[in-house]
Amino acid sequence: MSTSTVESAKSGLSRRRVITAGAAASGALIGSALAGAPASPASVTDSVPTAPTGARILRPRRLRPGDRVRVVSPGSTPQRANVARGVEILESWGLVVEIAPHVFDQYGYLAGRDEDRLADLNDALADPTIRGVFASRGGYGTQRIVDAVNINAVRRDPKVVVGFSDITSLQNKLWRDTRLATIHGPMVNWSDSRTGPESAEALRAAVMTTSQIVIQREETESTASIVVPGRAEGILLGGNLTMLDSSVAAGDFPDLTGAILFIEEVGEAPYRIDRMLSHLRRIGALDGIVGVALGQVTDSEGDNWTFVDTLRDRLCDLGVPVLGGLRLGHGNGQLTIPLGVPAVLDADAGVLIAEPAVRD
């Protein structure tokens, strides 16, 4: 980032350089991070924090060896060999993995008909013997079925839910309707060339331990130059930008008031990223956010402006801290982050710290 850009960002941030998102500021994790001291995993208590709306966060029990988990395909069809590798990784953690009946179905660009994909998802969410639901892949299709998800089953028996990309729709629906904390991380359609041992360990820690999640800004990441100084705390919400923008006015668009907005993207030209962010700005969806966490943006080609130029232009004048360079999304070495949990974004220190999505 150039000196002129930093100075402009500082002046725009002066009205609220350190932002607190209401009740989400409670908890030892938040306090220690804002004090500048490193928060240890032991500082994350078993108490359930309060969301900005006053609703309690619903945390599923962490996964343990011997737990049964089920793989589902709410969107597109995965590759059998990649799923076999993903299952191998989950089984190496001691989990018992089941494949839902329609995971490998194909109906156009979908993993089977809507009713079949929905049945697999709802069966997994309602089955009392299943402790975790892992998406096989994203692609497209979750928005076609998300409004019929069995919300009462989630309230009765919250489970670990893992996915990203197209699964953003499901994660935001579950947050909006139940306040379920979910896991934004690699899916079972596993590629060792993209997600190696570090990615696997990050996912394991997020679903099987109650340790806080710490994501450091990395200079080599494509969004690393996008930084607006400051610290913010709030509930971490968001996911894939396309899925977020296309859910406006539907049942899976979350209230972002008091939230740290996390976004990542793949395969969208800079002008399309501009259009989505401009839309969210125009409707006031970003008026109440307290910070922005930028994950990976991949396969974004365009003329004149790069996606970095676009993101800087559309985000750095919002008057909130912005932290890019987070290895979260479709890029190589993807890490894992909880959604729907209290978090601290410290752009000065280059770190995003989130409480766990799971409990003991």
Report on the architecture of this protein.
The chain contains 11 helices and 15 strands. With 360 residues, it is α/β, with parallel strands linked by helices. The protein folds into 2 domains: 3-53 and 212-354, LD-carboxypeptidase A C-terminal domain-like (Glucose Oxidase, domain 1), CATH 3.50.30.60; 68-208, Murein tetrapeptidase LD-carboxypeptidase, N-terminal domain (Rossmann fold, 3-Layer(aba) Sandwich). The strands form 2 sheets. Strands 1, 7, 8, 9, 10, 11, 12, 14 and 15 form a 9-stranded mixed beta sheet that branches. A 6-stranded mixed beta sheet has the order 3-2-4-5-6-13, with helices on both faces. Helix 3 links the parallel strand 2 (68-72) and strand 3 (96-99). Helix 10 (270-282) packs parallel to helix 11 (307-315). Mean pLDDT is 88; it is low at 1-54.
Estimated radius of gyration: 19 Å
Return the CATH class of the largest domain. Alpha Beta
Give the distance, in angstroms, between the N- and C-terminal Cα atoms.
42 Å
Helix-strand category:
alpha/beta
Strand content: 15-25%
Question: Looking at CATH, which topology of the largest domain would you report?
Answer: Glucose Oxidase, domain 1
Write down the secondary-structure element order.
HEHEHEHEHHEHEHEEEHEHEHEEEE
